[in-house]
TrEMBL record:
EC number: 2.8.1.6
Function: Catalyzes the conversion of dethiobiotin (DTB) to biotin by the insertion of a sulfur atom into dethiobiotin via a radical-based mechanism.
Gene responsible for this protein: bioB
Pfam family, one: BATS
Known partners and oligomeric status: Homodimer.
Pathway the protein acts in: Cofactor biosynthesis; biotin biosynthesis; biotin from 7,8-diaminononanoate: step 2/2
Binding, [2Fe-2S] cluster: 116, 209, 279
Entry-linked PROSITE patterns: RADICAL_SAM
Residues making up the signal peptide according to the UniProt record: none
Cofactor note: Binds 1 [4Fe-4S] cluster. The cluster is coordinated with 3 cysteines and an exchangeable S-adenosyl-L-methionine. Binds 1 [2Fe-2S] cluster. The cluster is coordinated with 3 cysteines and 1 arginine.
Protein name: Biotin synthase
Amino acid sequence: MTAAPEQIDVLDEAREQVLERGVGLSEAQVLKVLELPDDRIPELLALAHEVRERWCGPEVEVEGIVSLKTGGCPEDCHFCSQSGQFPSPVRSAWLDIPGLVRAARQTRETGATEFCIVAAVRGPDKRLLSQVRDGIKAIREDGNDIQIACSLGMLTQEQVDELVAMGVHRYNHNLETARSHFPNVVTTHSWEERWDTLKMIRDAGMEVCCGGIIGMGESLAQRAEFAVQLAELEPDEVPLNFLIPNPGTPYENYPVVEGTEALRTVGAFRLALPRTILRFAGGRELTFGDLGAKQGMLGGINAIIVGNYLTNLGRPAQQDLDMLEELSMPIKALSQTL
Ligand code: SF4
């Protein structure tokens, strides 16, 4: 089997640069990877897996997420069924504290070490922050030592400080897509506003979780742009989503990203981000099916969300845990230093 010389080059370069030296690929290199033909994908995934093992180790982080406030968001992110601006079937709803405590306990019982509290808002108001504070207190009083992350939209400095004081160790705020594509996806706030929140989180010492969605009409060049913009942020974790064309949203008729294309994207993002926790997030069942999920785990992914993904049902947690056991990948233990 022969391949064009420049296609061989980019993986050879990646082997020396990313695997040996831990330096992520440049934008031009990521684009070359995204343009690799299908018959190079196994080689790409094998390299991405080696990179992940070398720079992150064999462990897989398992996380559960719960929606504290669902739907009715004033923003217009075109992919999102929780926006109040589109006629999607998601209704506005709040979870109460006992429900939050139960969800945290069930998540911990799966062996997960991360529990992320999510709200569909532009940014938190006083009511939401006090719910989060009471919720975290109640989770601790329940004897649950799970690490708590939050995803509550854009923050002020004061709110960042409040979350640190509550013991929130990681904050999720997605850039969603390349800076050049963002205005096509969201018009009610800017990419830069999201970036500013992420900088405050980083400066306050919280871990940064920041990713996005593939398949929102971006070009391959914009996917490469997005990968290096994420790398510049040096996030601790990158959740990689594939668009779920939710009914009622402007993207309801967008095609699902094909499995091979998704795998190529996973491999390319791993080579751009050798040290990050790269998480399989929403849309993976639709894109990959069961078999592809396994391929992704052997192609650079080292974290998964178990159970629900806010508005779309994921696979049952046990199926994912069984898959990790089959692949002999240990679940990351809870940090002893916390
Ligand atoms: S800010 Fe978040 S919850 Fe609101 S529409 Fe955008 S993605 Fe959805």
